[in-house]
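Q: My labmate handed me this sequence with no annotations at all. I'd like to see what the chain might look like in three dimensions before we decide whether it's worth expressing. Could you predict it?
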Amino acid sequence: MNFRESAEYIDRTGMFGIKLGLEQTERLFELGGLDSKKVRFIHIAGTNGKGSVGAMLQQMLRTAGYKVGFYTSPHLISVRERFRVNGRAITEERFAELATRLVPAAERMKLEGAGPTYFELTTALALAFFIDEKVDFAVWETGMGGRLDATNAVTPEAAVITNIAMDHMQYLGDTLAKIAGEKAGIIKPRVPVFAGTMPKGALEVIRRKAAELDAPFEQSGSAPCHNIELPLTGAMQKRNFALAEKVMEYLAGKFGFDIESALDGVKHVTWPGRIQQVNAKLWVDGGHNPDGAQALAEALNGRKLSVVFGAFRDKDAARELPFLEKIAAEFVFVPISGHGRACYSCDDLAALTTVPSRPAADVKSAVDSCRGETLVTGSLYLVAEALENFYDADKVLNI
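A: Here is what I predict for the chain of 399 residues:
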């Protein structure tokens, strides 16, 4: 298969939906001849901040001289973004080669009555890529949850839990404690656990799980110990760096690299779509829950922007919009292209705010219609549209 054919093959597995559990991933690894013990993983879970913490860790490990894989989701403009080595996305040729290699295993599973899901296949592809590339470390981000997430079919060097907030409740539970329990599922016996800033009740769930498994536990503070100027915007990113800093200190102690020079590498980190200034006029952020909206409003405090916003109906837009009202001169509400009834209508959203608002057909026309500083937020799908129209794709593929 070529790249288009292989991407379409994996896309078609979307018909199998979300299947929480590790049995299929383990079976796919087995049939694909993939030995996860060949890779050192840093496993990251959490409601918000996973990608940013992962981007920081991979950049600092690269600065320390290591070859680093980075598996993340979702992607913005190309599925290739999910699979990186030393910041560079997988090529179309390698993607097609690895996908083709996994097809016999996937087809065998279908015959057994349990075809792999999209995320299970991409997780297996990431592992195959990192094994082939002989990476020194793989920064390994969960898709959703942790305990039953496909990425949990490995044993890492460290487990990292960024924070806990209300999101994906239909899968993870309707309380912070239940969600924390799912995220804590990435903790393995005697593997060190690093937790970020989070509500006390959620933290206690994670602490108890670590104690049950004799896993050393450490929580980061709200500010890093090292005074390094971050290129990523906002107080949340300082909290993310404080957590990444703790992980790096542990890895430096275990593997013997120079911590000071490694940490200095964070000055070069980029992470598209997360409180990102695209140009003099346009900001984008993929936050899609109330905690993300609050962090975004704090980061852009003092500005008044035209806020282009759209959201899926399973998101709590009624709690997100009040945070964004603090920085909104106006709202421009847009549908999420290709998702129709799954997203809020413009009228639905207008009813949730007293800030002046108007509809637009899509992100591009919305941004073009705004005169001053503009922010696109509410969904990574909207951010992807903005980046495709107003940003250089190579800067998304190579970080």
